[in-house]
Write a structure and sequence with these properties.
Elements lengths: L8 H25 L5 E2 L5 E2 L1 H17 L4 E4 L3 E4 L5 E9 L1 H6 L5 E8 L3 E9 L4 E6 L3 E4 L2 E2 L12 E4 L3 H5 L3 H10 L2 E3 L3 H10 L4 E3 L6 H13 L3 E3 L13 E3 L4 H7 L3
Parallel strand pairs: 3-5, 11-12, 11-13
Antiparallel strand pairs: 1-2, 3-4, 5-6, 6-7, 7-8, 8-9, 9-10, 13-15, 14-15
Helix pairs in contact: 1-2, 6-7
């Protein structure tokens, strides 16, 4: 396989959705009962057996059905065929901080990435909301089975914006610029994590600015869905690369202006 046209994305999407069903069946009972042990990773972020067990099940299913593909997950790292141009990138529970506090804004992120074309398929499943978003190139983007697309808002003054402030933005001197951009917008909120980007994909929010300090598994599925819905998803410099540590998604019309506004 030399490019993303060499694969049947409808079949890959069907597999990803089946995997999301399995993941939800593992993670949601943990959340509803809050019966897990919380520990901290080396970077001080939270992790539970729900994260680990969900990822284990996902990896096992991918290895069974796509043994020639590579796999990269937050909890278990790299596995599968490292020489493959195709890689499944997984975050078993995006929003673990919410998960452990009983906040229903968390999701399993599943992406299929091509080594030159980037993310071409994504599933974002948030069973506690309950919401699920998915998309694949040439197929379209959907929210709970309904076709979705980004908004047509063309000015910051009319835009709804979601921002996630963190120490990373402080470190690069960008916090004041974020505040200024919020003040220019029609309405500002902080939906956070995957959700703000999915709201961009749905056309409910026009700009989503994430924290600095992200990992590839935070970005891959989100980027795929936003792009397939007609939006743009880049790092804070405007580079389309899911492996970067920042993420901004917009309806596309506002993207260049947002990136320019955040230059430090």
């Amino acid at each position: 396989m030399n490019n993303s046209s060499d694969i049947n994305l409808a079949e890959e999407l069907a597999l990803a959705i089946r995997i999301a069903d399995v993941a939800d069946a593992i993670s949601l009972p943990y959340f509803e009962r809050q019966n897990f042990t919380l520990s901290r990773k080396a970077d001080h972020s939270e992790v539970t057996e729900a994260d680990r067990n969900t990822e284990t099940a996902i990896v096992e299913l991918i290895a069974q059905h796509r043994p020639d593909h590579a796999i990269y997950g937050e909890e278990h790292g790299h596995s599968g065929n490292a020489s493959s141009p195709w890689k499944w990138v997984i975050d078993p529970i995006d929003g673990t901080s919410n998960f452990v506090r009983g906040v229903p804004v968390w999701a399993t992120l599943i992406a299929l990435v091509h080594d030159t074309d980037g993310p071409v398929l994504g599933v974002v499943s948030a069973p506690a909301l309950p919401r699920r978003w998915w998309g694949a190139r040439g197929i379209g983007a959907f929210a709970n089975g309904r076709p979705m697309k980004v908004s047509e808002v063309s000015s910051i003054a009319e835009a709804q914006i979601s921002v996630t402030f963190n120490a990373g933005w402080d470190h690069v001197g960008g916090t004041a610029l974020l505040v200024a951009l919020q003040q220019r917008a029609y309405r500002a909120r902080g939906y956070g994590d995957f959700w703000q980007h999915m709201l961009v994909a749905e056309g409910a929010v026009d700009i989503a600015i994430d924290a600095i300090g992200l990992a590839p598994y935070d970005n891959a599925a989100v980027q795929a869905v936003v792009e397939i819905a007609g939006g743009r998803h880049t790092d804070r410099f405007g580079v389309r690369d899911y492996e970067q540590n920042s993420a901004i998604s917009t309806n596309g019309r506002l993207h260049d202006e947002v990136i320019t506004s955040l230059k430090v």
